[in-house]
Here is the input.
Amino acid sequence: MTAQTRAFATHSATEPLGLFSFVRRDPRAEDVAIDILFCGVCHTDIHHSRDDWGRANYPMVPGHEIVGRVTEVGAGVSRFKVGDLVGVGCMVDSCQHCGPCGKGWEQYCDSGSTFTYNGVDRQDGSPTYGGYSERIVVSQNFVLKVPENLDPAAAAPLLCAGVTSFSPLKHWNVGPGSKVGVVGLGGLGHMALKLAKAMGAGVTLFTRSPGKEADARALGADHIVLSTHPDQMTAATNQFDLIVDTVPYAHDLNPYVPTLAVGGTIVLVGYLGPVEPALNTSPMVLKRKSVAGSLIGGIAETQEMLDFCGQHGITADIEMIKIQDINAAYERVLKSDVKYRFVIDMASLKEGA
Here is the structure.
């Protein structure tokens, strides 16, 4: 039967998140019902809540880094059973028949993937509400198996931060002998360091902050380059096969292009918008260097990432919070005051507002 569901939501771009109640749909034949245990807090949650990208639909229940236990399955579900530890990431549906979907790239669906929150259900037109809630109902095709050997709270950020870092590393064939740079040490950056190191790459962190060296090395960095230090940047010339740029705001990419090896690529995973200042194409044309972008990962790739993390014991470094502290957590994220991902213990919803 339909389930009254408690959550935290915002009702406008300027309103804090607070207690909200809505009805989750009954599971359809292909659906999995999940009791949410933990939900990560992504910078995207803040952007959407505050309508930074101009696409907000209110009321909004954010959250797309979800880990929980299956409580019910539809009659047509074959991949999951009650009690399974599962995850839900940024998407809950896509057309599943276009070219990108056929390649397992549901995130690039020609008609637009259906996002876990701030979206519209393709079948009944209802709004999608995310993981800052007690439970969720999702098609089995968009539910992931979470390895039981991983801490479920620390595994939650893998559903976005993890796969956002993993996808470009896989696409650009990172492996033993690869040289990978990571720009920025936050939720995405710390996962990129861990994953690239586990793939066998030599890993370098680019940072503006001298005090991050010890943390970066503990996370897997072999080298640290201060991007504000001209001599260190010059010494890094022609080195990197791939640079994963995790910075979430407009910044100058030009100083990083010379650090790429011939044929190397800078991939942007944290920032959406125009590049400022303008990109000088000369060093790109002369040495076949590229600037690219990457968005999360497809469902099969997300499962591959989770399995890889299970095999290597990789999870996010997290700070656990209660849902009642979410508004303060948002302010701390904006100040980069978290190492490196907030995760909400959804049991705290039982405590009310």
